[in-house]
Amino acid sequence: ELEGYYNNPLLKSHTFDAKIQAGFTSTKVDSFFHFFAGGLLGLKGYPFYSIEGRNMAIGSFYYRFPVWKNINKRLGIMYLKNLYAAPFYQVGQAWDDTLPGADEALQDVGIQLRLEVNTFYFMPLKLFYEAAYPLDEQMNKSLTYEKQWRHYLGLLFNFDLRMSNRHQNLKGI
Predict the structure, then answer these.
(1) Mean pLDDT throughout 19-31?
(2) Can you tell me the distance from the alpha carbon of 109 to that of 15, in angstroms, rounded to the nearest whole number?
(3) pTM (two decimals)
(4) CA dist 23 → 28, 94, 119, 136, 160 (Å)
(5) CA dist., res. 21 & res. 141, Å (int)
(6) In Å, what is the CA distance from 69 to each residue of 6, 56, 119, 126?
(7) Percentage above 90 pLDDT, the chain
């Protein structure tokens, strides 16, 4: 996995995020060990099991900007801080033996909302909502996955689902 975060020099607190995920398995393995390239951690517009293979590549591109900074409002036990939005585009595929052509790549688009919250004035929480729409119909093992909106909602201590804290250096994002 490779990620890059780039500040917009013209607009403060606006960033462009690019992420590439890739996986490779050189030997034939049971499908239990395949890469599944859909769902919240993959191509968000597709169900988790709809895209699978021994190899995988996904590119994700976000443009993140503040919707409301310094909200400074209390809602019950929560203290609302900042709200960010990020339209996104993703492209990728998973395969077994032959690298698929560009015309076989699956694509989706969507929007992400992030809300920074403190509970009891000191416990940081991060709420997120994502809606993604696939631009292509997908078929896997005789099942057809039609184009429809997929929604994700989460509550975390950090916006990144992984264990890493390496993004803490980005102020206000």
Answers:
(1) 89
(2) 18
(3) 0.84
(4) 14, 9, 38, 22, 20
(5) 24
(6) 20, 37, 18, 15
(7) 55
